[in-house]
Every structure is written in C-alpha cells, then in structure tokens.
Amino acid sequence: MAALPGAVGFRDVRLDYRLYRDRSVTLMQAVMNLFGRGTTRSWFTALNGVSFSISPGEAVALIGANGAGKSTCLKLLAGIYSPTSGNVSTSGRIASLLDLGVGFHPELTGSENVMLNGALLGLSQGEMKALMPEIARFAMLERFMDTPVKTYSSGMFMRLGFALATSVDPDILLIDEVLAVGDAAFQERCYDRIRGFKRRGKTIVFVSHDPDAVKSLCERAVWLDSGAVRMDGESDAVLGEYLLSAGGNRRVERVSVSPREWGNREVFFERVSITGEGGVETAVFRPGTPLTVRAEISGGKDRPVENVILGYSVHRPDGEVVLAGNNLEAGFPLLTVAGRVSAAITLRLTTLEPGNYILGVSLTGNETDYHWQDYCYPLALLGERMSPPLRLEKVEFDCECR
Amino acid sequence: MTDLPLLMKSLVDKDLRVRYKRSVLGFLWFLLKPVFSMVVYTVVFTRIIRFGGAIENFSLFLLTGLLPWNFFSSSLAASTRTLLDNHRLIRSVYFPRAALPVAAVIANGVHMLLALGVLQLLLWLWGHAPSLPLIAALPAVLMLCCLTSGLALALSVWNVYYRDVSQFLEVVLLAWFYASPVIYPLGMGMLPPRVEHIIRFNPLSGILEILHSAMYSGTWPEAWCWISGFFWSAGFLLMGVLVFRRYEPSVVKEL
Asked: Which residue of A has its CA nearest to B5?
C-alpha cells in the first residue's frame, strides 16, 4: 500500500511491556533472589488491538487517562518502539516533540549541539547549516549560539530544543504535551508554529490533557482507554464523552446520584436534547456558548392542558442544586399542551467552577406534578477555574487583651 | 532515512570534542596513560622481576601492546554504558541505536591510531625503522575494531538488563590483560609451552602478535595470527550484531 506522505496507520497493534514482579531494593533481597525465583516475569499489555488511520493533513488528538497508552502510541509512531504484534505504518519525515533538547551535551555550544543533533534527525550537514540562522532566530538565542548550553537557563534550553525539533520540515508532527516551553510569549509562538504546520497540510498527532488545547488544534480525537480505542471521532464529541466519563481530570468524585423520573404523566417529555452552538447535540460547553434544552412534550390528547410550567435545574454531581428556574418565575408565557409541543430553554452561563454537572427538567402545573426528570442529563462545563471560589466581603479580628 | 555515516561521524565528533573539554593536556592523555603504565611495567619487569631484560627496548615493546590493549579496555568500558547514558535520547527520537556503542569504539579507535603513529615515530628514533611488514598493522587495527565493536554491541545491551555486566567487565579485563601477549611476547620461549599454546586461543593474541611483529620486530606475522585474528573478529562482530538486533526492540522498553 503506497501511502501519501503524512499518512499514519495502526492496524491491530498490541504492545507488551515486561514487568518485574520484584525489583529487589536491598542488597539482602538481591542476594536472596539469587537463590529463589525472585525475578518472576510478567507482562503488561499497554496497547491491545488498537486500530486507526490518519490521512495526510489531519490533526488528531490522543486523549485518555494516565496510563491509557497515549504516549506509547506516539513512541510507536516515532519508531522508538516496535509493536509486539500488528502493524504501525507511517510515511514521510517525522518530527517528534516527545522530549526537548535531550541530545544536547552541556559542554558543547548551542550551534555545535544543533549540528550534532541534525544527524540524529536525519539531516545533512549542509541542510543543517542552512537551517541554523532560522533556528537561532526562532529560539531567540542568536547571541548565545556560541556559548555552552550548560550556561543556558532551562527556558533557553527548551527553546533551542523546540526550534531544532521543528526546524526539519516534517510530514508528520508528533507532540507530547511538551508545550510548556518557556514563557507565555514563547508558548504562543510554539503554538503558532504548530498551527502553521497544520495550515500547510501536515499531519499532527497530539497528546494532551488540556481539552482547550485539543479543541483549538485538532478536529478529530481518539480516546484511548486501558490500551484500547474507546471512541474515535470529532474532537468535541469525543472530548465530551471523555470528560463525562473520567470527570475530565478535574473532579475525582463520580456522579453520586442516579436519574429518577416521576409524575402523573398527564403531560410528559417525549424527548429532551441538549444542544450547543449551531444546534449541535453535545454535553460539553465552553465558556460563553449558549446551552439549549429542547423538549418534545406530549399530552392533552382529549383536552388541552393549560398553564404548564416548564422548569430546569442544574445540580452538582453530589446532587446539590446550583441553579433552578422555570418559565413562570422568569416571566415567560406558560405552555398549553394539546398533542405535541416543542419548547426550548436557552441558558447562558458563567462557569466559575468547571466540571461535571447534571441537568434536570420538569413539567408541573398548579399543584400537580406532570413529569419530573431529575439528574437525567449530564453536562461538562469547561473553562478556567475562578479562584478564589470565595470572595471576602469584610474581615474583623477581635482580641481581648489582658 | 538516517544518514548512517554522518550519524557516526557526528557521534564520534561529539565524543572527541566533549572528552577533553576543560582539560589542559587534552588529547595527550591518551598517550600519557599508556606511557605511565609503560614506565611502571618497565621498572617492575626489568629492575624487580628481571623478566623483560631479554627484550631489546622493552619499553617500546610494551607500548606496542599497551596502546591496542588500552583501546580495547577503554572502548568496552565506555560503550557498555552508552545505552543507559543516552536513555532519554533513545526514548524520544528514533535513530539506529547501534550507532551509540559503535561510535564510542570508533572515538577510541581514532585515539589509538594517533597514538600508534606517535609510537611508530618513537620506534624509528630507537632504531626500529619502518619496513614493509608495517602495512600488516592496518588490517590488525581493523580486526581489533571489529572485535571490540562486536563485544561492545552485546555488552551495551546486556548491561541494560543486568548492571552487573559493567562490574564484571572490570574483573574480566584484569584477567584478560595478563592472559594476552601485552607485557610478554609469544614464540620466544618465555612461557611454558603448554601455557603458550592455551594463550594462542585468546581472541586478542593473534591481533596483538601481528602488531608486535609489524611495528616492533619489522617481520611478517605468522599465519596463525591471521587465522586467529580473522575468525575471532568476524565471530565477535557477528555475535554482537545478532545480539543487538535480537534485543534492540525490547531493550528500548527496559530503559
């Protein structure tokens, strides 16, 4: 299969690591192990039956909990590991940002290190010489290229590493959360350069825990869970499912309440959907985007049911109500249901504490409960955590001095 | 995709540049170390044990053996650690990893060639003028490099699994030194015939004897030296390459 430069394929990939049941810690244990069967071997399967393919020019994020196999995938793509079984195929030149500046020797100068590392990246001396000024410029180290890198600050070191690793014109760029490089301004330049690669149709494979970074760079995401692909699709959708399931690494506690419904069903919810911007169904909301609850309501077949109150509530995972309201309270007209009606509630939220929430809806009348759906619709609200979560109004210190 | 000769050149270059940074005597150390040990052995074996007196210019004879021996032992000591020392690099970029131990051997080889050149000059000054058999030294150096590289490849991998390898190596090298014709010549009746017979099976004996005859005596080496040198170096190189290829995929995960 002759693939275009930039294509990536994983076919039923499995990768095993060997685990040592016993890493002897003390000398005494080590001596005892010589006589016993101390170093029994066992295997740990990091990836099992992983298949996906990426076409040239796609930007794909690998997401998942720690230990799910994301970095292992990148190492397989970079050719560092070879699969235990299955097949990994890549075509074209690969630049890997797995770790920056690792080939640098502290005693050598910046330009000596760049020249020496060029060979590791597969560049000729001539190509490397031609790239040198650009590398120095991007790393903002023009004045320091003839200084030994041991005198560099860690930021300078990483900048040179990043400039070097991205100076090769790759067909495939592998990025492993190394973008915490230098100060904010340099980070922005790094992202700019990466977005530049994307614009020029290079394939990008990105491992990150930061949902915002994933969304801004990748239109597709592959969710790895315990070494297998759990979901593969549009990054919004995958990220949403992932954040809901994993608590998005923001909250540890699981949703501790289960959905419940009750009411006399004289009027009832036929279908409820939650949509975001552009009417797309989602459960994940970025700050500043509207959240719309669309409800198909049935009832009143024999005679119309009047003055129906449509309510909503947002709960924390532990069940505590954060927000609640209804059309009566908000001053909107009440519903009259005869046959089928559709209604929509659009909320604009300011998220002070990002995380998981659960939405509930209700149909009530004057002292009648038609239909309640409590804790039914999980939501993930993204955004920056606003700190501190408390605001001090006033403080006083009292002291009775003797 | 990787330009292997360029990669080797870069790694060797790096090794040479780094080794003598902040050192006043720099490269001279590669010559000074064997010279110091030569002085010690000369004093021990001509003044104390009276063993080398039978050999004319015993000091120069010693150097002819000590230079290749030092190459052999320091190459192995350096290359055994290469995979461990470069573990972060190995785990973040793909390149042919065999280049690391082999580059360590070649960097030492460069030193050895320079030092042998200086030695040849000294030999000339003391009346051992270069003669035609000197060309035999080149294939001997090549065979020595192959043998050392093969061993270096295997040791570098084994050392990842068992750190004992580098400790064990020191002990083995000590014994190997005395079992090799470095401080004594073969074929001059200085050793009991049975011992000499056994020592000829030492993988280094043939190569060292070629260097002795080519540089020091100016005579053509005996046939057994060529046979021994060729088979041992080809054998070790093949073993090293096979071991490395067999373990390379799993060793990366162990680092």
From this structure: A119
Q: Nearest Cα to A91, choosing from A173, A169, A172, A10?
A: A172
The answer to whether A27 touches A57, Cβ cutoff 8 Å, is no
Mutate which: A77, A120, A149, A178, vs B, most B CBs within 10 A: A120
Chain A interface includes B163 (CB < 8 A): no
Chain B residues whose beta carbon lies within 8 Å of the beta carbon of residue A119: 2-3, 6-7, 9-11
Q: Report the predicted TM-score, pTM, of the whole model to 2 decimal places.
A: 0.72
CB count in 10 Å sphere of residue B143: 23
Q: Is B49 on the interface with A (CB under 8 A)?
A: no
pLDDT of chain B along its 255 residues, tens only? Answer: 567 888 888 888 888 888 877 777 777 787 788 888 888 888 888 877 777 667 788 888 888 999 999 999 999 999 999 999 888 888 888 888 999 999 999 999 998 998 899 899 989 998 888 889 999 999 999 999 999 999 999 999 999 888 888 889 999 999 999 999 998 888 777 788 888 889 999 999 999 999 999 999 889 999 999 999 999 999 999 999 999 999 998 888 887
ipTM surpasses cut 0.85:
no
Do the beta carbons of residue B239 and residue B150 sit within 8 Å? yes
